[in-house]
Every structure is written in structure tokens, then in C-alpha cells.
Amino acid sequence: MDDTRQRILEATYACVARWGIAKTTVEDAAREAKVSRATVYRVFPGGRDELVSAVIAWATLEFFARLYEQVRGAESLEQVMERGIMFAHRSIIEHEVLQRVMQTEPETLLPALTIESVRIRDGIAVFLEPYLEQRGVVVGVDLKEAADFLARMVISYMSAPGRWDLEDPAQVAQLVRAELLAGVVGPELPAR
Amino acid sequence: MVIQGAALHVVHGETGERAPADDAATEVATPSSPNRVRIIDATLACLARHGTLKTTVDDIARQAKVSRATVYRAFPGGRDEVLSAVVDTEMARLFSALGVRLGAADDLAGALVGGIVEAATRIKGHAALHYLVEHEPEMVLGHLAFDESDRLLAAASRFAAPFLARWMSPKEAGRVAEWATRIVLSYAIAPSDRWDLTDAVHTGHLVDTFVLPGIRALHATEVTTAIDITPFGSGRGPGAGDDPAPGSSVGTAAHRPIT
Q1: Residues B190, A121: C-beta atoms closer than 8 Å
Q2: Does any CB of chain A come closer than 8 Å to the CB of residue B209?
């Protein structure tokens, strides 16, 4: 059952990559997954709308699973955030399907992605908490508040770098260690 | 500075000359024509009730108590031109209100809190924006994601940076203005149940806790100003004499890596 779901989602993603979100139908997904339409409807009773939301959630999860692989070996809070921001930024730029959908039919993606972003934020915050705990937060700073704030900022920077060059490790280090973390764990300008 | 110029222009139209009698023969369709502002405000009222999809030129004319011809004379492009003028005008109004708050601030903390609260309050109280977020989210979200959000960040920080440059170098001011904009956007898109940025106490706490220490640490990493440790909030800081030309800090001088 889970297998079927996974297969349909992968097939739907392949259709979206080829034709975009608006033009992908339940029939396309079924054909690509080599299952019947009835099977798609059994797994996704809401039909096309549910399938589209599910594939956006699935692709987002895939994205963050790769991000998690990148950062889980990091030794410090600083390293987690630096690696995470750099990897996420690069992955977004290089994400062909995301970029194409954003160019051709952003209206089909953005509402769902905005809903996802709340879940993503909570996920990032929960991931950062043990690192914050280990590193120790400044007296008077609430750990959960700090994690939420940092998660918001990580999402903001990874999707729009603004004045920062997020390909440059030195700039990312400055952004993370000075701007983002100074208030949370205290100013740290260590030898690197 | 284009945006600031536009702000002054439009806002002048809003509060300047009185609206003329609805006499088509004497109307002049210039960007500052009071009819334009009247039509824009009427459109905002329509948007707050019906959104963009169901608002017609007829609705706008009726709401503004002018004729259709008057709408087309002020906006030859019709509905689309009115809608895009609405966006420009609302941005200009936001920026001009921000300019007042930022200009009146006595110290950096005051400028940041005042600016964030002003922006958050205007976003929260914007009836047309709320209708669109609720019923036509794609209209709004397109401006808040990826490249478009970069454009918005650039415009907002270009506008706010010269005000912040009273307390820091233009380069730092650009980054700090951008940071404040990110904070406003993040909490506007996904409000927090802990912090309400329209509340000066909440925003003050957030600024004191996370933003000011970050600014100090950023400041300490800048090679040009590393010697001066004038506390922020105590008057003119280092770099106050620098040229605060907008955009001058973008991608200039190689910055100093933390070593």
C-alpha cells in the first residue's frame, strides 16, 4: 500500500517535471505509475487536488531529507547553519523542476508551498533545538523562541539571498556567526 | 531613488489639491491627478470586498463616484493599469509612512522597532491585502517567493538603508535594513502565536534579543570600522559621515572574512 503511494507520487512528480502542475492529470499519473485510475483514487480520494498537494509535500520532504543528510554530521550549531543555508540555497537554484514551475506557473505552486513552509519552519526549529541546547543560549533567551526565530531566518535566506553571496563560505560564516547567532548564543569570532 | 520619488509624488496627490468637480473637460490625466488617487482608493475598497477577479471598471467608477470615461481618462490601460497603480501607490504609502517613522527615531533601536511596527501594522490592517491572501493567494504570494522576494527585499532595503546609515556604514545599513524587512515578511506570511510585531513591546523584545546583538557582531567583523565600538543607540555612530547613497553598498568592496 505504502509502496503504491510512493510509486504514484514519484510518477506524478515525473509528470510535473515534464508538463508542469496544471497540465498533469490523474490519468497521466496513473499511466506513468502503471496503475489504474481507480487505484490512484483509492490512495488519493480527493483526486487531482489531493494528488497535487501530496506531490508538493512529498517533493518538499525529499528536499529536506537531502538537506538533513548534508547537515547531520555537523559538529556545531554554526556548522549546521552554514552548511544548511549554503546547501539549501544551491539546491533551490539548481532545482530544475522547482525553477521551471516558478517561472511558468507559480500560482499553482505557491499557495501549497506557503502552507508547507510553516511545517518546514517547525521542522528546522526542532532540528536546531538540540544544537542550541548543546551550545547554550544567552541568559534570558528562550530556547524555543530562538529556534523559531532562527528557522524563520534560515527559510528567508535560503529562498532569497538578498545582499549576501551564499556561495561564499566566508560571507555565510559572517551571516550565521555574527548576524544570526550573536543574540542567541553570544558573539563568537573564533579562529577558523 | 525611484521609490522614494514615487512616494512623494503620490502622497502629495493624495493630500494636496482638492478633487476637482467631476467635469471631464477640465481633467488632466497626470500621475498626480487627484482623480487618480480617488480611483485608486475606490479600487482598494472594491478589492477588500471582491478581490481582483470580480472587480470591474464599472465597480471602480461607481465606488469612486466618477464616470467610466473618467476612469479610462486617468488610466487609459483600464482595469489592469488601475490595479498596477494600486500596488505602486500602496507601496509608496507604506514607504512614506516608514520614512516618517525612521526619520523621527532618536536611536537605532527606536528606528528598527518603529519601522517594523509600522510595516507590520499596515500589513495587518490592510483589508484589500487580507481579502487577496484569503481568496486569491497567488496574487500576493508571487511577490513573496524566491526571485520576486529578492526584488522586494532590495527595494525595501534600498529605501530604509539611508535612514539607518545615521548609525552605521552604508554597507551595514543595507544589510540591517534587509534583515528588518525579512523579519516583517516572515511574521506577516506566518504569524507567530508568541510575538505580534504590531506590538511595540513584542517587537522591542525581538529587536533587543536578536537583532541588536547581531548588528553589533556584524559591525565588529567589518574591517573599516573595527576600531570604533561606540554603542549603538548613543547617537551618531561610525560611518555616519559616509555617503549614504542608496545601493552603494550592494556588492561593493570585498568584505572581510572572519579569520
Answers
A1: yes
A2: yes
What is the per-residue pLDDT for B207? 97
A&B contacts, CB < 8 Å: 126
pLDDT digits (tens, 9 = 90+) for B15-33: 333 344 444 444 444 555 6
Span A67-82, average pLDDT: 93
| pLDDT score of B29 | 47
Q: What is the pLDDT of residue B38?
A: 96
Cα nearest neighbour of B205 on chain A: A141
Fold of the domain built from segment(s) A53-184? Tetracycline Repressor; domain 2 (1.10.357)
For residue B249, which residues of chain A lie inside 8 Å, CB to CB?
163
Distance CA A148, CA A16 (A): 32
| Three cell numbers written together for A67 | 538537506
Q: Do A187 and B141 touch (CB under 8 A)?
A: no
**Cβ partners under 8 Å of residue B213, min gap 6:** A138, A182, A183, A186, A187
Which residues on chain B are in Cβ contact (under 8 Å) with A138?
213
pTM of the model: 0.81
**pLDDT tens-digit series, residues A102-115:** 888 888 888 888 88
- B4 band by pLDDT with thresholds 50, 70 and 90: very low
Asked if the Cβ–Cβ distance from B220 to A183 is below 8 Å, we say no
Contacts within 8 Å (CB) and 24+ apart, B127-136: B127/B44, B127/B48, B128/B44, B128/B45, B128/B47, B128/B48, B128/B86, B130/B48, B131/B47, B131/B48, B131/B49, B131/B50, B131/B51, B132/B47, B132/B51, B132/B52, B135/B51, B136/B51, B136/B52, B136/B53
Q: Does B182 contact A187 at a Cβ distance shorter than 8 Å?
A: no
Contact A189 B258 (CB under 8 A): yes
Domain boundaries, chain A: 53-184
The pLDDT of residue A182: 93
Task: Point out the least confidently predicted range of A103-107, A118-122, B1-5, B214-218.
Answer: B1-5
Whether B182 has its CB under 8 Å from any CB of chain A: the answer is: yes
To the nearest whole number, what is the mean pLDDT of chain A?
Answer: 92
Minimum-distance CB partner of A110 among B145, B209, B251: B145
Question: Which domains are delineated in chain B?
Answer: 1-90 (1.10.10.60), 105-239 (no CATH)
